[in-house]
Amino acid sequence: MSLAIPSINTVSATVDVVGTGDGIPVVRALVAAYLARHPDVRVIVPPSIGSGGGIAAVVSGKAMLARVARPLNAAERDNGLTASPVFRLPTAIIAHRDVPLKDLDADTLVAVFEGTVRNWKQVGGPDLPIRVVGREESESSFATLRQLQQGWVDMELTPRAKIAMTAQDAVESVRANVGAIGFGPYSMALENLVKVLSIDGVSARDSAYSSAITVSFVWREGLLSSEAHALVEFCTSQSARRLLQAFGALPAVRSPR
Length: 257
Fold this sequence. Notes:
By secondary structure, this protein is of the alpha/beta class. It has 2 domains: 14-89 and 213-251, Periplasmic binding protein-like II (D-Maltodextrin-Binding Protein, domain 2, 3-Layer(aba) Sandwich); 91-199, Periplasmic binding protein-like II (D-Maltodextrin-Binding Protein, domain 2), CATH 3.40.190. It contains 8 helices and 11 strands. Strands 1, 2, 3, 4, 5, 6, 7, 8, 9, 10 and 11 form an 11-stranded mixed beta sheet that branches. The longest helix has 14 residues, at 24-37.
C-alpha cells in the first residue's frame, strides 16, 4: 500500500499516536526502536482512550495517528481515513499466578466465565473461589473472543464479574486477586505479571491460536507528516517484524484501505 506524504510537511517533529490500550507495550517498543534511529523526532504514545477515541482524535485533528484494534467501518473510510495493519496480537486468557492450572479446554473456559464453575477445585485445582474479571461488550478483546473462541458467541458473562475499563486494569485486577481469571491482549511482559493459560493445549504464542486482534495505525488522507509516514513504514518493516516476534505478536498483512 502506498502512503501519501503531503506536499507541505508539518513544521513539527512531534507525532501523537493515540487510541486503544490493546498492544500498547508492543506499540511503545516499536516507537522506541524507531526513535533510536530518529532521535530528532518526538513520538508520544499516551494511555488508552479506546479505538473509537483514537479515531475521533484523528478526525478532529487533535492527533495525527490513531492506534486501533478494529477495522474501519464504511463511514470512517468515507470520511477519508486510512488504516495500515501493523501486528496481530493474541487475546490471552490470564489467571493469578497462584492458580496451578496451565490449560483449560474450551468448554470449561465458557463455564468459568459464565459462572457455572465457581471454584478451581471443580476443574482440578485447589479449593479456591474463582474471581472473574471481564470487559465491556464493545471492547476489542471481548469482541475477539466472541467472534473467534469456541462457545463465546452466546456466552453470558457471570453477573459477579468485575468489569475492567481498560486492558491495564484487567491485568492488574487479575494480578492482585488470588483465584482471578480474565483476558486481555498478549505481550511478553504479561508473562511476568500473571499466568497465561493455554486453551485446548494451544498456547497464545502458537500460530494455531484462534483468538487474536489486529492493531492498525489510522490517519486521515493528506494529513500524514513525513515523520508519521516514516514511523508507519518502520513499524511494518522487516526490522519491526523481528521485534514483534520477541513480544509474542505476529506481523499483520498490509492491505488496501
